[in-house]
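Morning - acetyl coenzyme *A inputs below, output right after.
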Amino acid sequence: GELGGRDEYSLVEAIKQGEEPCYAGVPMSSILEQGFGVGDIISLLWFKRSLPRYCTKFIEICIMLCADHGPCVSGAHNTIVTARAGKDLVSSLVSGLLTIGPRFGGAIDDAARYFKDAYDRGLTPYEFVESMKKKGIRVPGIGHRIKRGDNRDKRVELLQEFARTNFPSVKYMEYAVQVETYTLTKANNLVMNVDGAIGSLFLDLLAGSGMFTKPEIDEIVEIGYLNGLFVLARSIGLIGHTFDQKRLKQPLYRHPWEDVLYTK
Ligand code: ACO
Ligand code: LMR
């Protein structure tokens, strides 16, 4: 179990006696001896099990590709403004993190929920997208401010390429690609974004790895573990933006009037 097969009392005793700490029952020394990486640590601490190498590598690729997307996106902007207001690292970081949500970086769980539901119910991409439109809900994982059908997101391509080569099945991803093919017939900005790529591919990881039961997959999707990947990844970039502002001794930020001035 989570206590490494011991009851709480014997675990507390073991810690008191200086026994080495464990992640989900795996001792630190073993983690280092086996050459585990961050993907393995996430597997142990979030999913409470060791996952095959291609899964942990995929988790690491998600973290690396989502670490930063420049200073102009919502999260980095907030972090930069906060750092330039003289606030500390933690304040600057959380100011940026607080923008992560349904429009920015936090659409992974909903993308997984909606793609899973639509695929499992056998909806065609047309039926799925049109039913979302009727409900007035934007398809999570679809759409981007900058990326277009003729200027795809390289991160999405890289994630898909890795999965096509290494995953036993990419059925959810292929479904999301079909959804994208349909949405692109409606508007050129309705491309699959990183949230959609990670959401659909994580469904393939959960279902295809043989490491999770069906109820466990349902629970992970329902609780919403996957936005955690973006939160964790983007923290790396936001911390970097904070240091950049401090190192460059940037003054208090004031937004240009003409950008926000509005009339009734
Ligand atoms: N599903 C259906 N229609 C959409 C979607 C979508 N996901 N996204 C945009 N549209 C439609 C809009 O309804 C709009 O049409 P309308 O004016 O007739 O209503 C048109 O496309 C243009 O929409 P904008 O609001 O101009 O698009 P914008 O560039 O502001 O939005 C955004 C980008 C926020 C990502 C949007 O596409 C969206 O909400 N997507 C779903 C949430 C999502 O996946 N977010 C993660 C983005 S990736 C990341 O942050 C790392
Ligand atoms: C990001 O990774 O921050 C985004 O895809 C959002 C954006 O506007 O680039």
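Note: The mean pLDDT is 95.

O.
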